[in-house]
Amino acid sequence: MERRLKPAPTDYRMCPLSSVVEQRNRKPHTSVRFWQGALAMAGGAVLLLVLMITFEKVSKIYPGNSVALQDLTLTIDAGEFVSIVGQSGVGKTTLVKLLIAEERASAGSIVVGGWDITHIRASEVPLLRRQIGVVFQDYKLLPKKSVWENVAFALEVSGAPRERIAAIVPQVIKIVGLEDKLHRYPRQLSGGEQQRVSIARALVHRPKVLVADEPTGNLDALNSQEIIELLKRINAFGTTIILVTHNRGVVNTLKKRVITMEGGTIAHDQKIGKYVL
Length: 277
Ligand SMILES: Nc1ncnc2c1ncn2[C@@H]1O[C@H](COP(=O)(O)OP(=O)(O)O)[C@@H](O)[C@H]1O
Ligand SMILES: [Mg+2]
What we know:
By secondary structure, this protein is an alpha/beta fold. Helix content is 36%, strand content 22%. The chain has a domain at 79-104 and 117-270: 3-Layer(aba) Sandwich (Rossmann fold), CATH 3.40.50.300. A six-stranded mixed sheet has the order 6-7-8-3-9-10, sandwiched between helices. Strands 2-1-4-5 form a four-stranded antiparallel sheet, covered by helices on one side. Strand 7, helix 8 (221-236) and strand 8 (240-244) form a beta-alpha-beta unit. It is globular, with a radius of gyration of 18 Å. Magnesium ion binds at residues 92-93.
């Protein structure tokens, strides 16, 4: 029997992520705000408990007999910050693609928050994508849309009403610290800023998991560090972070779990890991 994830609450402010904004803009508590906060925390805790990611003996063989993943077993708990490292071609991006259902496994099973997504139907993929935000190395922003429009677009395509868009977009843009660049176009932003827009866009559905595939691959050391600090802040408020990276410095300073992949499977899984390649 398939068990569905609960759809995200409609009020974005009732979620742990909003605390990331609160941290930057603290206001005095009224008793209403106190109880709202308490309920949000309790709700957040329940949601955190249910979201675990499990890959069980997963293989992926692309057409042409190209083996990308082989018998990979992995569990990621709710709220973890996991780095996935490994040389080019070991299957990191394939793992991400299976998790967001951009590709299907050839064998094994993938379960996200109790929901078996191994054979997920195309019609159900948007529901999964609301639970799992994704960030790519090349940002994938729409060049003819402003910062605001790029972020709003992610909500528009999911049919969100205008008021909801107007409420959420400023919140996520504030989380990534781009409130003074709302009307700039991607070409008028630095690489680090463009990546922050793509992170804001990934947060609009208040996902429980954020997957970043080489998010600092095109950035210099300073911008990379800023992106990692942002991911840490998002993680601190309960969102699971899965960071695929080649950046040795980043991994070694994080002092979090490191999964090293080799030949389509897991070679090392260290609780407080180092980049060992
Ligand atoms: N669409 C595809 N068709 C055929 N082979 C693919 C495809 N995508 C990836 N591969 C192969 O699968 C292996 C893993 O690729 P990938 O997951 O992109 O690795 P990584 O992200 O670690 O560099 C590589 O050998 C790659 O050539
Ligand atoms: Mg890759």
